[in-house]
Amino acid sequence: MDPLLIGILSKALLGSSFVGVVCGIAGPYLVLRRLSFLGASLSHSAMGLWALVLALGIESFWVTVLGLVLLGLFMEFLFQQSKLPADSVNVVVFSLGASTGLIVAGVHPEGSKIVSSVFFGSLYTLTDEDILILAALSTLCFGVFFKLKHAIAVSLFNPDIARMRGYDVSKINYLLVAVVSLSVAVAVKTVGVLLASSLLILPSLTALRLSSSFLGTLKISLITSIFAFWIGIGVSFLFDLPPSGAVVLSACGLFLVSLAKRKLRPIFKGIKL
Amino acid sequence: MFTVEVERLSYSYREGEEVLKDVSFKVERGEIVGIVGPNGAGKSTLLKILSGSLKDYGGSAKILGLEVKNFNEWRRVGYAPQRISVDSALPITPRELFKSARADLSQVSAIFHMEGFLDKPFNQLSGGQQQIVLVALALACAQDLLILDEPTVGLDVHVKRHLMDTVRTVASEGTTVLIASHEIGLLLKECDKILGLDKEVVFFGPPEESISALEEILWIPS
């Protein structure tokens, strides 16, 4: 195999593994908080913000990151303080982000190119800098979720019991949504809107089908997420398919397999997760 | 110092519709107080205020001398709410719940014979088993105050017996216990004091003196 291709493939597998860790560990929190659509609304807002920032010539990715984290915190504020339904807030933010992206695509000379790159990502063009950013981010995200796993579990069970056991549920949710927003921003830059929003949810659903414990769900979600990336990239590479679509379809495939849970049980018997 | 001091407490979910009106009582360390009253009497609301879930109350509610609004020693209080709605998708086991809540499982697990379902998801347990988990968690957490809202719903006679024996034991060790229940016979037999509530205090005192006052708001089995 061409050494250049091996280099591209290695970077794609390494970078996607880091994104896989982020999506796998953060996803169950969003799904179980009934905020599955938050990933989609944040990633579409990232598209709008990033397109806007590029169109304005600021060309600083970190401005987009900051904007998205602030947007995530504002949404969490609305979830906690307003009586507005969370799914409605998500739809408003989703529409706003997507509309901004479409307007930029329409008026900027290179708008379509910008929006296309943000929408589908660029798994095969990851730079060393991208890999480093992804490594740092996945470490941060994994660290925060791992450290707070007990707080997350008990606050999802019952916020009052969590509060009485010494957890500040409100602050924890703000922190987790900020980390999710940060993760989505970087995931969108590297793997695109389509992947970022799908991969936050699909592995979590697969894990919820297969696990009967909270920690087991986190572990299976993380493993499934990384596997979906690897399978998708492998298939895309072999059959010359768009990587984003192949990875999402792989994640869908794993979810469909998990639906046959009873038939799979003998295979998983004895594996403690 | 009293463990619980409630002075002219009032609460309304909607303006002009008071659920609690001018409620006052004091509970000493190690006392067991049974809270009785008809549906909608404000029993759960009172316990929600004392567990810090409702903060916009009128009057005063103190735990260990501190106003509930400013109280920050919640880890010394065990609370089992009346109903708990846990997301059916949440795959948390009782063992994980206790670990996450930093509560010691070993003692209560033996008392309530929980070994058989400790590693099953909470949402797949029977109603009675779920109730046992909630009550056991509150018991494991309670150091100074134990608040139980309808703890016997769905429990069989044996488990009720274990529960009341355990409540007696923790009270004898200095933990104050507040129990709201519709099982008046059980409360009259097991509690040191009865608080009769019908939005306002109807009676507060020893069980043997409570019958005539409670008969005005409840049907008391002979």
Q: What sequence of helices (H) and strands (E) makes up the elements of chain A?
A: HHHHHHHHHHHH
Q: What percent strand of chain A?
A: under 5%
The radius of gyration computed from the alpha-carbon positions of chain B, rounded to a whole number of angstroms, is: 17 Å
Helix content of chain A: over 70%
Largest interface, per-chain counts?
Answer: A-B, 26 and 30 residues
SSE string of chain B: EEEHEEEHHHEHEHEEH
Q: Note the overall shape of chain B.
A: globular
Q: Can you tell me the CATH class of chain A?
A: Mainly Alpha
Residues in helix, % of chain B:
25-40%
Count of domains of chain A: 1
CATH superfamily of chain A: ABC transporter involved in vitamin B12 uptake, BtuC
- Rg estimate of chain A, integer Å: 19 Å
Detail the poorly predicted runs of chain B.
Answer: none
CATH architecture of chain A: Orthogonal Bundle
**Could you give the count of β-strands of chain A?**
0
Count every beta strand of chain B, where a strand is a DSSP E run of 2 or more residues.
Answer: 10
Task: Provide keyphrases for this structure.
heterodimer, A: 273 residues, mainly alpha, ABC transporter involved in vitamin B12 uptake, BtuC, 12 helices, 85% helix, globular, B: 222 residues, alpha/beta, six-stranded mixed sheet, four-stranded antiparallel sheet, 7 helices, 10 strands, 27% strand
How would you describe what is shown here?
- The complex is a heterodimer of chains A (273) and B (222).
- Chain A is 85% helix and 0% strand.
- The longest helix of chain A has 42 residues, at 169-210.
- The N and C termini of chain A lie far apart (37 Å).
- With 273 residues, chain A is an all-alpha fold.
- Chain A is globular and about 55 Å long.
- Chain A has one domain: ABC transporter involved in vitamin B12 uptake, BtuC, CATH 1.10.3470.10.
- Chain B is of the alpha/beta class and 222 residues long.
- Chain B contains seven helices and ten strands.
- Chain B has helices at residues 43-50, 94-100, 105-111, 127-141, 157-172, 184-190, 211-214; strands at 4-14, 17-27, 32-36, 58-63, 66-67, 77-80, 145-149, 176-180, 193-198, 200-205.
- In chain B, the strands form two sheets. Chain B has a six-stranded mixed sheet with strand order 6-7-8-3-9-10, with helices on both faces.
- In chain B, helix 5 links the parallel strand 7 and strand 8.
- In chain B, helix 3 packs across helix 4.
- At the A-B interface, helix 7, helix 8 and helix 10 of A face helix 2 of B.
